[in-house]
Structure to design on (118 residues):
């Protein structure tokens, strides 16, 4: 193998392939869908919000872990990325849902009072 081919091979081995990034992003979106339909408060936020957050978190964690030196073809990068994504979407679903519910109740009570009509 020539030196230039070896350099390109070594350089490409240290970076993640776009396909793996696509797969982990899809996995994050799927985890977001699972969180959306299995946790409470789904009526308090949009259909695509939690899956979108799951996809973004999975991609960001994946890239951060590759920058930290984990190999993209190893198992730990997949496990860490998906577990962190599952935890984040679970927390985000609960936080956004409960805060939206509190805001809706407060707004409803404010609109119910006679002074709100003025």
């Amino acid at each position: 193998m020539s030196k230039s081919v070896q350099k390109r091979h070594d350089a490409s081995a240290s970076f993640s392939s776009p396909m793996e990034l696509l797969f982990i992003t899809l996995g994050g979106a799927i985890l977001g869908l699972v969180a959306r339909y299995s946790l409470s408060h789904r009526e308090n936020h949009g259909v695509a919000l939690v899956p979108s957050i799951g996809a973004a978190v999975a991609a960001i964690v994946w890239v951060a872990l590759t920058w930290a030196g984990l190999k993209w073809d190893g198992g730990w990068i997949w496990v860490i990325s998906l577990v962190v994504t599952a935890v984040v979407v679970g927390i985000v679903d609960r936080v956004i849902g409960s805060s939206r519910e509190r805001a809706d109740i407060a707004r409803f009570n404010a609109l119910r009072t006679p002074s709100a009509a003025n």
Remarks:
- The chain has one domain: 3-117.
- Residues 75-112 form the longest helix (38 residues).
